[in-house]
Design a protein that fits this description.
heterodimer, B: alpha/beta, Amidase signature (AS) enzymes, eleven-stranded mixed beta sheet, 15 helices, 11 strands
Chain lengths: 475, 483
């Protein structure tokens, strides 16, 4: 029997706000436990939440980016349950009326566009962390993460394979990073995913019983978890057993999913509107203002680069991180070099140098302006590609600016038309016989003169330029 | 010195020093300690503050309340004194921050002498639900002072402080004010900040003052109220100059008398006193308009569904983990939370948490909580529509006077009926005050409630003030020999 897999995804994207969703605490990752915990985050008696407006703007930016309906009136509700790292005994979230309604994100699969339906996106606060391995006799509670703003982005059950799911997640990951609303750091949990998966007989319109896979934080794990779960469902169904509605956890060590809790043991969260917070009213003016300040989205960048006839691989490279594309744009804006040349430089020598030093384009060692200047010299054939490479390495080692390096290393002699000309004039005077022989048709002597120029310029002269000048001066 | 105004004048004219005044109250506090109106007292700090106040007065730097010794209901977080909220759960809780209204009053020079007793987490109408014991009513020490701000009302009635703060979720300022023969106002929802006030039911809670007269209330409210960025439900608008607005004549004031406030369940002495008061208003030129509030039977049920629902969630943070009482009997996290709450919450608090959890549970949410929200909106509409036809709605604050201590009805719903006339103002977010309007059997105070449109505090206070210019119920004091 053939089966259709049905997948819906819930992504928790941590918003890059300056402070928490309802308090002024910072949200920097990896600081000392409870050093970013205010009285509000700790849920002390009598304190009250105050909404961070930056989170609202970011949620609206996301909504606009996925062509979603922005609800003019949404509100926060309390999700009630007891847990040691949930200080108030409830999580402030959105339930009945999220800030972002239905939208969609188009993804590319085998050169085909597939539209992923987004059901909703809502704001909520993160919980703290229970730390079980720091002490032998007790569990530690770190509330630094408590109150961190999350945007939970929920799709309809519209995906049918691990490949589609991963493709959507990568597109979403790229989108939130290009919007600048999430750093996308999956290891630190800034972008994590719950998967809802079910199987149904091929062609059937009735959905099967689903299982939910919780808190996956790597694309590879998500893919493995889906593939495993798909097979597990299929095996159960084909042997006549029922799939139980339950929450499962992916175990990276065994690459299997494990039972966490059943539907019956789910909490009754007793959602109700949080009376400490006013409803969020969003006006058309506010939306229009945010529209005007939207960054260029990956899809649009992609189509621009396609128009510039950049190959798909190069486009993917430039869009791999917002910093990569931002750096590319800066170089492009200041350079006469063509898009392809710039891309080759970034993808090749520059990316290698970054990799070797464990760096990224977030902290580019060689400034965009210097690289642009260097590529301008190459474009004007002032210097050769090989000299440009040597200069790049010196730039990397911070040995000065492009012009300083050229001056100091005597690349100018080898690169400047006039200086090369006078050098060639001197050579012709030095070797009059050879010059005469060349003019009489002994063309092989060209190589002799080129060799001499190269010898005198320590191999740094642009060979093309040398050839042109010799031809002119020996004529 | 029968009024806050005369006390302020005496201080400014240096007829008395703040230190003298503070010592006067400290002596009374000690003398009448058996009333159990206080949970914590800080005489040393108060006297330090009094010295500073005298210096300020000497330097002509006095503010609106400089040198006045006061008390805060123990629901307001204070940095110098623990904040127990009348509960074993918070018996040793020391807040690292201060409630905004505490700061506001301190900024105007008020001196905190102590924290007053209250029903645990403000749940109760008799102050009998306090972990720190019942409070005696100064008018009859065998009787309750009302609740939940029972300590504050008793402290003011017995002149243990110049005035006290209270909180009112369903009548917790007005009902004890009525029982203790003092004046109290619950402002419009959002007028006074809720920051640092331990939450009972967030959409209903409001802070307000308890004092001897409407004029006192006007002076205090002026200092207490105001926008606070730390409270999202606080209203960003200028606070009117209440003391200066106690001027208008009552001529033409439209007073609504709802028939439901004069049903047979309401004690006849109370009814008689309120009708007498109405005559006083009429003589002053007010127009009396009879009205029906048809949704009145739904006030209490609606209130208890919403208040308990919010309380069940607000009280979830008391899990014994980060602060407050922690049980020593637990061996797992679930047991720890359960045991801490079981051991540290009182009966009434547990009852309301259970009720609130029930009405929010799936399967019951629509029938109870959602229904209550709809009814709340209708109640609000009915009151606002009627307040378009009249300026104030007048009636008794409570159906009867203070009842004996230990005489609480076995059926908790019966005790909820003590709030029958007061909860409406909280459900609708309206301002309402209670002032003394007579005595039952010559010794038990009767309270009169005035309720108005949102932000009509100035009008309510003026109506009450004009009434107090024509009557002297607010000047009566309990017999000190029987205290």
């Amino acid at each position: 029997m053939n089966w259709d897999t049905v997948i819906g995804l819930e992504v928790h994207a941590q918003l890059r706000t300056k402070s928490k969703l309802f308090s002024g605490s910072a949200i920097t990752f990896g600081t000392a436990p409870n050093s970013q915990t205010s009285f509000i985050d700790a849920g002390l008696p009598g304190v009250l939440p105050v909404l961070n407006q930056q989170a609202i703007v970011m949620a609206i930016q996301f909504g606009l980016a996925v062509n979603a309906q922005i609800n003019d009136l949404s509100y926060f509700e309390r999700k009630n349950y007891f847990y040691p790292d949930l200080p108030k005994g409830y999580q402030i979230s959105q339930f009945q009326r999220p800030i972002v309604g239905k939208g969609h994100l188009d993804i590319w699969l085998d050169d085909q566009v597939k539209r992923i339906e987004i059901e909703r996106a809502h704001l909520e606060e993160d919980a703290g962390k229970s730390i079980h391995d720091a002490h032998t006799n007790y569990t530690g509670i770190d509330l630094n993460r408590a109150g961190t703003p999350l945007l939970e982005i929920v799709t309809t059950p519209c995906m049918h394979s691990a490949e589609e799911a991963i493709s959507y997640l990568k597109a979403l990951h790229q989108l939130v990073r290009f919007l600048g609303i999430c750093d996308g750091n999956m290891q630190e949990g800034s972008f994590r995913c719950d998967v809802n998966i079910s199987l149904k007989p091929a062609g059937s319109t009735k959905l099967g019983t689903r299982t939910e896979l919780k808190n996956l934080n790597s694309f590879r794990f998500i893919e493995k978890a889906i593939v495993y779960e798909q097979a597990r469902h299929q095996e159960l169904l084909e042997s006549g057993q029922a799939v139980m509605q339950e929450t499962r956890q992916f175990c990276p060590a065994t690459e299997t999913t494990l039972f966490l809790r059943s539907k019956e043991n789910e909490h009754d969260y007793r959602y109700f509107p949080d009376p400490d917070l006013l409803p969020i009213a969003i006006s058309m003016e506010q939306i229009n203002l945010i529209k005007k300040s939207m960054p260029v989205l990956p899809a649009e960048i992609k189509s621009q680069l396609e128009k510039a006839e950049l190959p798909t691989d190069d486009i993917s490279f430039l869009l791999s991180t917002p910093a990569t594309y931002r750096f590319f744009e800066q170089v492009h804006a200041q350079s006469d070099a063509d898009v392809k040349t710039i891309c080759n430089w970034l993808k090749g020598i520059y990316a290698r140098a970054l990799n070797d030093n464990n760096l990224t384009f977030d902290n580019p060692t060689v400034p965009a302006a210097e690289l642009a200047l260097l590529l301008n010299y190459v474009a004007k054939k002032t210097i050769s590609n090989s000299i440009a490479r040597q200069i790049f390495h010196k730039l990397w080692e911070k040995e000065g600016s492009v012009d300083e390096i050229i001056e100091r290393e005597g690349y100018l002699a080898a690169t400047n038309d006039n200086e090369l000309e006078s050098l060639i004039d001197d050579l012709i005077k030095q070797y009059p016989q050879q010059a005469q022989d060349y003019r009489n048709g002994k063309e092989k002597l060209m190589a002799f003169f080129v060799g001499q120029v190269m010898k005198q310029t320590k191999g740094q002269a642009n060979p093309e330029l040398v050839n042109d000048l010799l031809k002119k001066l020996l004529a | 010195m029968n009024s806050l105004r005369s006390m302020l004048d005496a201080l400014l004219q240096k007829q008395i020093s703040s230190v003298e005044l503070t010592n006067h109250y400290i002596n009374r506090l000690e003398k009448y300690a058996h009333l159990n109106a206080f949970i914590s007292i800080d005489t040393e700090h108060a006297l330090q503050q009094a010295k500073i106040a005298d210096q300020l007065i000497h330097n002509n730097q006095a503010k609106a309340l400089t040198g006045i010794p006061i008390a805060h209901k123990d629901i307001f977080c204070t940095k110098n004194l623990r904040t127990t909220c009348g509960s074993k759960m918070l018996a040793d809780f020391q807040a690292p921050y201060q409630a905004t209204i505490v700061n506001n009053l301190a900024e105007q020079g008020a001196i905190t002498l102590g924290k007053t007793n209250m029903d645990e987490f403000a749940m109760g109408s008799a102050n009998e639900n306090s972990y720190f014991g019942a409070v005696q009513n100064p008018w009859d020490t065998n009787r309750v002072p009302g609740g939940s701000s029972g300590g504050s009302a008793a402290a003011v009635a017995a002149d243990l402080v110049a005035f006290a703060t209270g909180s009112d979720t369903g009548g917790s300022i007005r009902q004890p004010a009525a029982f203790c023969g003092v004046s109290g106002i619950k402002p419009t929802y959002g007028l006074a900040s809720r920051f640092g006030m331990v939450a009972f039911a967030s959409s209903l809670d409001q802070a307000g003052p308890i004092a001897h007269s409407a004029e006192d209330l006007a002076i205090i409210l002026q200092a207490m109220a105001g926008f606070d960025a730390n409270d999202s439900t606080s209203i960003d608008q200028k606070v009117p100059d209440y003391p200066n607005l106690l001027k208008g004549s009552l001529k033409g004031l439209r007073i609504g008398l709802p028939s439901c406030f004069f049903q047979k369940e309401v004690n006849s002495a109370v009814q008689k006193a309120i009708h007498e008061a109405v005559k006083v208003f009429e003589q002053a030129g007010a127009v009396i308009i009879e009205m029906d509030l048809t949704l009145q039977p739904l006030w209490v049920p609606c209130y208890y569904v919403i208040a308990c629902a919010e309380a069940s969630s607000n009280l979830s943070r008391y899990d014994g983990l980060r602060f407050g009482y922690r049980s020593s009997k637990a061996s797992s996290i679930k047991e720890l939370i359960t045991a801490s709450r079981t051991e540290a919450f009182g009966e009434e608090v547990k009852r309301r948490i259970l009720t609130g959890t029930y009405v929010l549970s799936s399967g019951y949410f629509d029938a109870y909580y959602l229904q209550a929200l709809k009814i709340r909106r209708q109640i609000q509409q009915e009151l606002l529509e009627n307040l378009n036809k009249v300026d104030v709605i007048l009636g008794p604050t409570t159906p009867d006077c203070a009842f004996p201590i230990g005489n609480c009805p076995a059926d908790p719903v019966q005790s909820y009926l003590a709030d029958v006339f007061t909860v409406a103002a909280n459900l609708a977010g309206l301002p309402a005050l209670s002032i003394p309007a007579g005595f039952k059997e010559g010794k038990l105070p009767i309270g009169m409630q005035l309720m108005g449109k949102p932000f009509s505090e100035a009008q309510l206070l003026n109506a009450a003030h004009q009434y107090q210019q024509m009557t002297d119920w607010h000047l009566a004091r309990p017999d000190e020999d029987k205290l």
